[in-house]
Amino acid sequence: MSNPVVMEVTRGGRMESVHRGAGIVVDADGGVVFSFGDVARPVFPRSAVKPIQALPLIESGAADRFALSPVELALACASHSGEPEHVACAAAMLARAGLDEIALACGAHWPTNAEAARACAGPSALHNNCSGKHAGFLCLACARGWPTQGYETPEHGVQRAVKAALEEVCGERLDIAGIDGCSIPAYAISLTGLARGFARMGTGRGLGAQRAAAARRLFDAMAAHPFYIAGTGRFDTRAMTLLKGVVTKTGAEGVFCAALPERGLGLAVKADDGATRAAEVMIAALLGRFLDVPLDMARPELKNWRGLVVGEVRPAGILALDASAGGG
Asked: Which residues 6+ apart lie within 8 Å of 2 measured at CB?
């Protein structure tokens, strides 16, 4: 099945490039509200599922044992930009468990925020966009008395708990595995399963009482502290700041998920070519079916190095028909 063209990139009023993709909106019972493209094909959600991966941190009692704050819980779900506040928060999480950055298995990279990178003396694992998630994994390991060495491997108790949470929340058996950019197992999940998982996280439907409470605690932390989910100027931070009550989460290679808890809906998209710009506009277009989404998120301008507007990224095809609906 060939996915449809859903994004166009223009220059000088003419189409320069296109992006194909798939997406779906479901309710917590799995009912399909809207979909396009092949939503049954498993994709690697990468960082988009970090909120689900953080569930064992709450359910195990580790978050309470180490008195993790809502800000720290938000960082456990984050793909942050490596700004000073993010780095300090990840370090504080590790310190609560008696650890430091040496324990992190995510690898080091420079901050993705340009200003933070210019001020950085050198890259460290704390700058890694996944350091908050890994700090949460280490807190879980310490609380359960598991070794911290090898916590990123599939056979470790931490990753077994994470896989079990993903399977239950998304409603799919996970057996297609790879290795993520931060070295933990990466499992392929259909867009239908991802959207169902976010709908369940936002409503608690289909989850036990303990898991529903943990999901609500994580989503509340994310919504209350959007800066710690991404960072300055990032889509997730802007979306959750402007669209109150909405939870969004980017993933690598053109995956994006979101939840509208008050409407009981979960959303998931995948850009075929892995383009972040396409995934952001795709999720904005889907959110625009239910909310008033700022135009600069749904149809962002493209500027050159002088700041001149040279084109835009805009929804196309079936998404173009729906993008103008807004707040439906």
From this structure: 20
**269 near 4, Cβ under 8 Å?**
no
Q: Could you tell me if 84 and 127 are in contact, meaning their C-beta atoms sit under 8 angstroms apart? A: no
Domain total of the chain: 1
Question: Does residue 328 sit within a domain?
Answer: no
Structure tokens at 302: 């493209």
Instruction: Check: CB of residue 93 under 8 Å from CB of residue 132.
Output: yes
Tell me the C-alpha distance between 156 and 152, whole Å: 7
pTM, full prediction: 0.95
Q: Write the pLDDT tens digit of every residue in 84-101.
A: 999 999 999 999 999 999
Kindly state the percentage of the chain with pLDDT values over 70: 97
Neighbours of 268 (CB within 10 A): 35
What are the respective helix, strand and coil percentages of the chain, to the nearest 5?
45, 20, 35
Distance, in Å, from the CA atom of 167 to the CA atom of 122, rounded to the nearest integer, reads: 38
User: 179: domain range?
Assistant: 5-323
Q: What is the mean pLDDT of residues 132-146?
A: 98
